[in-house]
# Entry
Amino acid sequence: MEVTNDNGCSWIKDLNPRQNIKALSDNLSTNWLIIGAGFTGLSAARKLGEILPKEKIIIVDAQLAGDGASGRNSGYLVDTTLNDGFTSNKELESYKKKADIYDLGIKAVKNFIKEYQVDCDWNECGKYFASSKREDIKILNNFSNTLEKLGYDHDILNNDQLTNRLGTNFYNVGLYTKGGILLHPGKLVRAMVDTLPKNVDLYENSSLLEWSREKDLINCKFKNNLIKTKKIIFATNGFLRSLGIKKKYNFPITLTASMTRPLTDQEFETLGSPKEWGVLPVRPMGATIRMTRNRRILIRNTAELNNPNYMSPSLLKKRSIKQKLGIKKRFPQLPDDIIESSWSGVVSRTRNSSQIFEKIDKNIFVAGCYNGSGIGVGTLFGEQIVLKAIKENSKEIEIIESRSKPTWLPPNPFLNLGVKSRLIYERFRARSEI
Ligand SMILES: Cc1cc2nc3c(=O)[nH]c(=O)nc-3n(C[C@H](O)[C@H](O)[C@H](O)COP(=O)(O)OP(=O)(O)OC[C@H]3O[C@@H](n4cnc5c(N)ncnc54)[C@H](O)[C@@H]3O)c2cc1C
# Structure
């Protein structure tokens, strides 16, 4: 059950090491316990701490707060995504519901950074969906129709335009959306840790091993200690399933990414000195690739079923080689040895890409499964699950709950077989885009 992370992520290495780290060392009892300190859990803790200033709130994480997927993602705060089908009016309606949630997520993050004056390299530079395959223009035109109907500003781009803006002539077709923000996820999540209200107690390096209900209390067992709580919010995303939560509706996927060192002036000039940009793939298993503010290239091009608690250094090394090749394909002029760090991170997926936002039993709440939109939607869901837990309503909750619920997954071994074959198929379809 222990979560063992690599400590390779450049985003996290950019931050000052924290001093005030406290692990669980006593048995405790509380009215409110939050498990997981990423965007979801930290937002929940902040909101709860503000609403109930006299209550003691406990938040616990298996590793350092923010060092999970929240601090090690690609940093796209998305307004739209491409990987759902949307051709009929019904699909358009469900796409709109999804996009409305993204919009609320962006607002939640914006409010947070405004209120606490957070510097997280925020850049409202929009984003690209791009492909080297000319036939993918069909997918992009279809997407463009959807965006048109919903009023999202966007442009279809050709190879020349993409080469000018990105500094690589790898992509032949693309679609640029004006909405969407690029940011430094490590800085954002660190700010959420640093601004926790005074009545929130954070315990780190403390894994929840088991939990069970005993009448009106929930007993949470950690390595040497027990926390008894009246109410609990599970915000462990990729680790929901391993804690037995909504097991029939979500499964973990491990992603890996690499980041180069900052490019030298000379290297940067060979790319035409582009402005900061971010590209998302047109095909689901293609690469996400970014030019950061300080001229580093980030690439994420793998997604797989793996033990969520651990990825071995040798497997990570193999994935890093894939990322090196991905960079080489797009920027053949850059040297081979410019990758500074490689890391893995775990997310949770549902079959129909719907999120989980629920009371699963009396006084037990859960929020997760954001499918590449967890920066905004995690921040939003953390705040809103707290309102749900204190029985307050909000227009946000209405919007969140009007989306379709996650659909049922088959049990193992059928689930793993199904997911593996789907991943193999998608990988094959996107093989030129990795
Ligand atoms: C490589 C990568 C790229 C991504 N790119 C993007 C992107 O560009 N944009 C975007 O919006 N999203 C992206 N995502 C997804 C995004 O990072 C997640 O959706 C988001 O971090 C979810 O936040 P969370 O707080 O729910 O979960 P997490 O950040 O995963 O936090 C959950 C926490 O729970 C803790 N935990 C787990 N088990 C236990 C336990 N038993 N006891 C105590 N604590 C426990 C973990 O240690 C972890 O800190 C990416 C993810 C990865 C890995």
About this structure: The chain is about 30% helix and 25% strand. Residues 3 and 309 are 4 Å apart (CA to CA). The chain has a mean pLDDT of 95. The two ends are 32 Å apart (CA to CA).
